[in-house]
Every structure is written in structure tokens, then in C-alpha cells.
Design brief:
2 copies of one chain form a homodimer. The first copy, chain A, is of the alpha+beta class. The first copy, chain A, has one domain: Arc Repressor Mutant, subunit A, CATH 1.10.10.10. Chain A contains 5 helices and 3 strands, in the order H-H-E-H-H-E-E-H. The first copy, chain A, starts with 9 loop residues before the first helix and ends with a helix. The mean pLDDT of chain A is about 95. Chains A and B meet through helix 1, helix 2 and helix 5 of A and helix 1, helix 2 and helix 5 of B. The first copy, chain A, binds a DNA duplex (30 and 30 nucleotides) through helix 4.
Amino acid sequence: MNKPDKMPELEVLFELADLFKVFGDSTRLRIMYTLFEDEHSVGEIAESLGMEQSTISHQLRVLRTNKLVKIRREGKQIYYSLDDDHVKKIIEMGLDHVLE
Amino acid sequence: MNKPDKMPELEVLFELADLFKVFGDSTRLRIMYTLFEDEHSVGEIAESLGMEQSTISHQLRVLRTNKLVKIRREGKQIYYSLDDDHVKKIIEMGLDHVLE
DNA sequence: TGAACATATGAATAACTGTTCATTTGTTAA
DNA sequence: TTAACAAATGAACAGTTATTCATATGTTCA
């Protein structure tokens, strides 16, 4: 008794593809997982993942552009946190598939 | 009262990223949408999307490798259909985000 | 068998992407 | 102000990817 799933406009499909591209990188996935529990500064994330500050900063910008994380400034640091309820759901749905 | 979302092994994260990469292309999204309703042959998909047969075939292979579509042979044609319940759910979850 | 058709494959190319390095911007506290 | 620190940015590079063209494989039917 499902509604037919009509194909969205090409424009929307491009946006959708762009969104999934964001999830299609292990570094960004790791960052998102890191933020599942709590907000973290750029430096904290970089250290906890053992990666360059610059790399993390670049990827956080991608996440922010796609409205998946938001920031809170506190002194010199900038704290990032998840900005969307769908993030967890999308990742968990993907995980379901990967884990059979 | 959620369980803590522990970060999966790196190995699993790579697989997860690879899965999302598959969703991160508008041609593959269009193919999957086409298969939402019903199975279709390669030629049908190519024609309905107005793309090269070769392009569709290449992308169907990607979808198949990732266990997202399955095939059924009938004479000269090969009919593709969705092979996973998660496909719709993942796409719809992404659409929710894209459409605000 | 051979012709006609459907699909798959391989090589080539152009475009895109993640990381690094070097530098800049922005903030705090002396 | 300045020094010290945190984060952002830009250019460059290596690696990846989607598409096309040409061709091969596989199937049916006469």
C-alpha cells in the first residue's frame, strides 16, 4: 500500500547524489562518528583520529556546507557538532546493509 | 536511552564509505529509481534515461557488485531489479535531508 | 551455421576529490 | 602592541571515477 516512488527532478537528484558523496568518504564518516557522542574542536578531532589539522578542517567544511554539522565558537577553539537527525539514521541504515 | 554509537572498525568504515559512494552518483540514483517500480532490462533503462547502453551497463555492474541489484535472464535480455530493502530507505532518508 | 540483437568489457580521457604543505586569518592574554 | 595558539584557506599533486567508443561475448531464431 506504498505510494509510488516517483523519480524526483534531475536537480533534486543531483543534490541527493551530492549528499551521499559526503557520506562516501571514510574520513568524514569517522568525523561524524566522533561527533555522535559530543561536540569537539577541530584539534580534538584531528588528534583523536591521528590526522592533520588541515585535513580535518577541510572535511569539516564539506560537512558544514552540506548542513551536517554546525559550529559553536568558544575562545580560540571552534566546536563542531552534528546538525541533523538524519545523519545517524543514514549511517545506521548503511551499516545495516554492509553488515549483511 | 540510546546505546552509545561506537565507531566501527576502520575496515567496516571503508566498506560503509564505499556503499555511500555508490549512492553518490545521479546516474546510479536514476537507475535505482527506475527499478523502484519494477524490473527492467538494460536497454529499457538506457532508453528511458536517454543514456548510452554502455554507460548503464557499467553502472549496473557497480550496483550489482555492491549487492544493490540482482539479475534475471530471459532470452537475450537481462532484467535487473532491486536486491535490498535498504535501498529505498537509504534514498528516502537522504531525500528527507535534501528537501529540508 | 550465420545473422541479428542484447549486454558486457576494455581502453582512453576528462573531470573530480582527498591530502599535504605553506600560509593566512582570527582569537586570547600578557 | 605582540606572542602564542587554533582554525581556515589555497595551490599542488596523486589517485579515482563516469562516460564514450569500439569491440567482444552470449543468446535466439531462421
